[in-house]
Amino acid sequence: MTESKTEFRFVKPGEVRVRFAPSPTGFLHLGLARTALVNYIFARKNEGKFILRIEDTDIERSKEVFEKDILEGLKWLGIKWDEGPDIGGNYGPYRQSQRRAIYKKYLEKLLKEGKAYYCFCSKEELEAERQYQMSIGQPPHYSGRCASLSKEEVKRRLSEGKPSVIRFRMPSRKVVFNDLIRGGVEFDTSLIGDIVIAKDLDNPLYNFSVVVDDFEMKISHVIRGEDHISNTPKQILIQEALGFSHPAYAHLPLILGPDRTKLSKRHGAVAIAEYRKEGYLPQALINFMAFLGWNPGTEREIYSLNSLIKDFSLDRIQKSGAVFNIKRLDFLNGFYIRQTPVEKLTELCIPYLVEEKLIEPVWNSEKLYVEGYKIVATGETISFNYLTKIVSIYRERLKKLSEIVELTDFFFKEKLDYEKQLLKWREMSEREIKYALARAEKQLSRIEEENWDREKLQEILVREAEKVAEKLKREGRGYLLWPVRVALTGKATSASPFEVAEVLGKEKTLRRLRQAIEMI
């Protein structure tokens, strides 16, 4: 058995061309998005081109809705391609379903040169062969029973309409190549057998079509997931059979769940569109995905897309699996939420409040723009500034935009619904709760509307809280501040009563205090 070491041509930075080539058979998920991100960063860092190619030869499973989701997801993340199905380029078409004539030309070349052949073995025959090989301790592979059929016999069977596939005549040797992440990788192709590369001349399969596309599109580097590494020796040998040059290869580590099994939905991983729907920001996902298998070699954890392009390198990508940690993603998302200007953050939060029917937009007479918003429960019209005040006092608490609903829904209700027991702070009796709320209501009612702000409210309520604690012979301001905060929000946790009362305004604040007193 011979051994060959695959040499890759030297590529100057400006000549770098990488591709992201998803199959539109499902939604854009985290693993695919991570692969797209690394390719994009590598291209930008090396002043190269990032190509989007849609591998849709699986006609039955490929759907337009999935392709649309992939393109929209990449755009939302800020990953922009230089060539692709929607913008064209010099090496199109960029959908495999539109490249069949190109594949046919190269399939005919392999068949003519005897490097590929028609196989007429049935599924039943192949399965029997597979089971026999396994029973005697051999790895299952095609034995090559059709490899020596004469041209006349092949022609006869094809004319009779015998079911067939096209197999590549796999050279029996060791293939050694240098992976830019893993170093030297070796495969013994005698264990693989002759592989199927097409159903027929018009329907090529993955390992063949990807080789043709990468050559025709002048791809210099193939950066993809570790699950494709076993395809690399097959593709290298097909490249050699066709006289193609070899791109350089880099295989990213798999993304694992916390239990170190393959990442799945049960670990919290969902489609990129779902992360977007839940209220994750694209900056957070970019930062999070970059660290799935890579680290900068420093303590730095926060990276924008531009800073990643500057600092990212393949030689700092680990070989072992990258562990997915949803808490880490939540932390990063909370960080980026806090960095978002409050006006922009409010714009991002409003759709969640509208979807939950807490508010609805009020359009101008021509329905050209939104003039304001209406609280659905009360019919009260509120301004964008009012919503901005609400978002501003909860920005520090948000981990996801969708949480704005649960955190702030009390602002948009006529009357709160909560158990009166929630008003109790420590060992307070109902009489003491009522006393504290009445004291707060009395003091707040004396504040003039023009003085109704957080500083004044805090001054009055803190002073009164100390008096209540002294009267009850207790220590702590919570004997007034806790029941007041619950009365205003109906929640066990929330922003401070000063912040909430400022936004609610004097009338609503006093009304909710009275409602709480009546409940007791």
Q: What is the structure about, briefly put?
A:
This protein is α/β, with parallel strands linked by helices. It is built from 19 helices and 16 strands.
List the defining traits of the structure above.
single chain, 520 residues, alpha/beta, Glutamyl-tRNA Synthetase, domain 2, Arc Repressor Mutant, subunit A, four-stranded antiparallel β-sheet, three-stranded mixed β-sheet, 43% helix
Structural class: alpha/beta
Total DSSP helices: 19
CATH class of one domain: Mainly Alpha
- Cα(first) to Cα(last) distance is 89 Å
Largest sheet, described in full? Answer: 4 strands, antiparallel
Reported by name, the CATH topology of one domain is: Arc Repressor Mutant, subunit A
Largest beta sheet: what is the strand line-up?
4-5-8-9
Q: Into which percent range does the helicity of residues fall?
A: 40-55%
CATH architecture classification name of one domain: Orthogonal Bundle
Number of strands: 16
Give Rg in angstroms.
Answer: 32 Å
Mean pLDDT: 94
The residue ranges in which pLDDT falls below 50 over 5 or more consecutive positions are none
- The general outline is elongated
Could you walk me through the main structural features you see in this protein, from its secondary elements to its overall organization?
This protein is of the alpha/beta class and 520 residues long. Among the domains are: 265-337, Orthogonal Bundle (Glutamyl-tRNA Synthetase, domain 2), CATH 1.10.1160.10; 340-412, no CATH class; 420-519, Arc Repressor Mutant, subunit A, CATH 1.10.10. The chain contains 19 helices and 16 strands. The strands form six sheets. A four-stranded antiparallel sheet has the order 4-5-8-9. Helix 17 packs parallel to helix 18 (497-504).
